[in-house]
Design goal:
The chain is of the alpha+beta class. It contains 4 helices and 18 strands. The chain has 2 domains: about 130 residues, Diaminopimelate Epimerase, Chain A, domain 1; about 120 residues, Diaminopimelate Epimerase, Chain A, domain 1, CATH 3.10.310. The chain has an 18-stranded mixed beta sheet that branches.
Length: about 280
């Protein structure tokens, strides 16, 4: 099986072109094996680039634990770069089908290669049963969550996948690595959740670390950064145009007052290509 390793500000996945080769057998097992950073290629998961009846391509994303996720913000930028650079659809505006619907992307192209990509991430989902969460949320999407002797005010948003945003004075390993996995699997989140720990720098920028559902801590989460932008505005902490500083790099975020859509802009990089042996 041929693959391409790609990353968007350090959020790295193994990408498989299902236009030119069959859909992998036992994708859950493959995702676990190929994502292993010691015995596999290494990555936060595997993303399949598939034909679509309604868009230029379809993205299917599987986390490092084999579970399928609806959406990946950094991943979709890499999918768009692959679709453009490898000639599937050599256009500077692309549509990609995802688990949250068809999204539109604008590519910045230099010397025939896509570099920066702006994604229309659609409207945030704010109804608790659609996020989903069983927490009682106020008008700012904030509720109370107690865990490990901590009492958190958490802001819950879905960008097609669930997010639990927590604003803190300082982001620590204890919070991200200790509390993060417990919140991911907390009963208040029926489909588990991604957990973002945020330090607000000013009204236009923030620092972020994320514990991702199914993958653990990653260097970046695009949908998470979008959820933070929404949470920051709803709680009065930040403006609608923001710069997010993640461990792997920066993302530009804009929550439009015109159409309520969140826009995310960032890079996409191809790292290397290879072949994965058939182990059956």
């Amino acid at each position: 099986m041929r693959f391409v390793k790609m990353q968007g500000i350090g959020n790295d996945y193994v990408y498989v072109d299902c236009f030119s080769q069959p859909f992998p057998r036992d994708i859950t097992k493959l995702a676990c094996e190929i994502s292993d950073r010691h015995f596999g290629v290494g990555g936060d998961g595997i993303i399949l680039i598939c034909p679509s009846e309604k868009a230029d391509a379809r993205m299917r994303m599987f986390n490092a634990d084999g579970s399928e996720s609806e959406m990946c913000g950094n991943g979709i930028r890499c999918v768009a770069k692959f679709v453009h650079d490898h000639g599937i659809a050599r256009k500077e505006q692309l549509s990609i089908e995802t688990g949250r619907g068809v999204l539109q992307l604008k590519l910045e192209v230099h010397n025939g290669k896509a570099t920066q990509i702006r994604v229309d991430m659609g409207e945030p989902i704010l109804k608790p049963d659609l996020i989903p969460t069983t927490l009682q949320l106020d008008k700012t999407q904030t509720g109370k969550l107690s865990i490990d002797h901590h009492d958190f005010d958490v802001t819950c948003v879905s960008m097609g996948n669930p997010h639990c945003v927590i604003f803190v004075p300082e982001i620590t390993d204890e919070l991200v690595l200790g509390v993060g996995p417990k919140i991911e699997k907390h009963p208040a989140f029926p489909r588990r959740t991604n957990v973002e720990f945020i330090k607000v720098n000013d009204q236009s920028s923030f620092n972020m670390r994320v514990w991702e559902r199914g993958s653990g801590e990653t260097l970046a989460c695009g949908t998470g950064a979008c959820a933070v932008a929404v949470a920051g505005v709803l709680t009065g902490r930040m403006k609608r145009s923001l710069l997010g500083h993640l461990r792997g790099g920066d993302l530009r975020l804009d929550w439009s007052e015109t159409n309520n859509h969140v826009f995310m802009t960032g890079p996409a990089v191809e790292v290397f290509q290879g072949e994965w042996p058939d182990r059956d």
